[in-house]
Amino acid sequence: MSAGAGPPSRRRTASERLHEVLLDAAQDVLDREGLAGVTVRAVAREAEVAPMGVYNRFGNKDGLLGALAVRALNDLWHAVDVDRSVAPEPRFRQACDGYRHFALAHPRRYALVFGGGGPVARTGSEASVYGHAVFEVLIELVQDLAGGRTPRGFADVGEAAQVVWTALHGAVHLESGGIGQVSGSPDTYRRLIDLLVRSLR
Amino acid sequence: MSAGAGPPSRRRTASERLHEVLLDAAQDVLDREGLAGVTVRAVAREAEVAPMGVYNRFGNKDGLLGALAVRALNDLWHAVDVDRSVAPEPRFRQACDGYRHFALAHPRRYALVFGGGGPVARTGSEASVYGHAVFEVLIELVQDLAGGRTPRGFADVGEAAQVVWTALHGAVHLESGGIGQVSGSPDTYRRLIDLLVRSLR
């Protein structure tokens, strides 16, 4: 966007702030009541505005969930985007820890994003674009871990990143659901990361 | 159970058959409407019996879901329990394929079992016992794959089996949700199995 176009900056800021207020409210409802609870009416009540204010901005429930998914993916992006000055292996491990931390700290945001059938699964949605941005970080982490080469046994680094992601997802999803056959989930996660590092390096 | 105890076998068989009829009905409701749809009333309607017939047998919704989870885990057990005459590596691969096939063919049964917060998460429940039986199959597969040794980098074979399971779960859960960043999910699954085989052998 060019700086000269659009409404004066003061007014735009107020509009952006309302957007944030409504999104904060929607996220609170999501965290407290889960996906089913996120309705235009519930979010309006939470933010103490008229339902029309939410409709005008997000349309319907799908619009709300899409915006929430974008925010969650943006936070997840920050959680895995470790400083490039860190060496590849510790950077990969820190990013994996960041991924786990996000998933366990915000299980309902994580489920919205990766629970299936949500906004991320819709090709071309804004959420799917943000999802891909997170995946790009993972690709770079895997590539750097493998010394810039394609990891052994994979056609390309994207395929390897996809496998890494599925494994991380499985671990945090089971841990967050309280399902495990051996005790000590943090240990399981560390062992998984060890295995991935050994395989990809 | 001893054969001499209990009611005459003819009557017991009828009772067992009613149990199966109700469970079939509950499973149909689950497959069609998901977890939220499985109520005593819905299952009674599906089976064309009075609700009291379902209450008497399963108590409440939790009882129904527990019985459904046990049945699903029993089917999953059959899906991963490959004939011991098959060599360790192809046996491991076949079991992993069986796991994926079950999850994709019956996404709602799979979600009931491993979706979190369900009957399997309750320590001491019948479902948790069946869940552990499936895990025992996985432990044996991993142990045989590793030539009877503890796979490198793990404290014991159970820990390695847990890591394998989390990875398989992540892959099928994302695939069943239609979420992936690279196309060709069956390929991703195969690459994951390749990576696991390389790491554990």
From TrEMBL, chains A, B:
Residue ranges of the annotated DNA-binding region, renumbered to this chain: 39-58
Domain of life of the source: Bacteria
InterPro entries referenced in this protein's UniProt entry, alphabetically: Homeodomain-like_sf, HTH-type_TetR-like_transc_reg, HTH_TetR, MT1864/Rv1816-like_C, Tet_transcr_reg_TetR-rel_C_sf
Gene3D superfamilies named among the record's database cross-references: Tetracycline Repressor, domain 2 (1.10.357.10)
Swiss-Prot/TrEMBL keywords: DNA-binding, Transcription, Transcription regulation
Stretches of the chain forming a coiled coil according to its record: none
Any one GO molecular function term: DNA-binding transcription factor activity
Entry keyword annotation includes S-adenosyl-L-methionine: no
Residue ranges constituting the HTH tetR-type domain according to the UniProt record: 16-76
Classification via PANTHER family: HTH-TYPE TRANSCRIPTIONAL REGULATOR RUTR, TETR-FAMILY REGULATORY PROTEIN
Protein name (record): TetR/AcrR family transcriptional regulator
Species per Swiss-Prot/TrEMBL record: Streptomyces liliiviolaceus
Organism phylogeny: Bacteria, Bacillati, Actinomycetota, Actinomycetes, Kitasatosporales
